[in-house]
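Table 4 source record.
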Amino acid sequence: MQLLRFIREHVPSVWALRLLLLIRTPPLKTWSPGELVRELRASDLVVANVLTRFEDDGLVVIDPERRYRFAAGRELDELCDALADAYRLRPFAVRRAITAPDDQLTELADAFRIKDGRE
């Protein structure tokens, strides 16, 4: 399942999930690391590590003033939309997808299926 694969590859923690959902809204807003720390009530280290990973993964860009902005391409943006919807509808399933060992992924995949069977 594409969404589950996206979560496992790009969202290493619940902190990362929260940061990703925050940085995407509103579109084109730029954030300083300090603003993200305050908004998420997270540590500087957590935010810095997640931002570095997201930059490497092509989810955010950094401008010359060291401000971050969501900047994923169309495919990743659509997966982020799907992730936001899944988290709104099934927050515990999304959290389990982030934290579950790999051997439990098959059963988690069913939690993300929409009634018509599509991802």
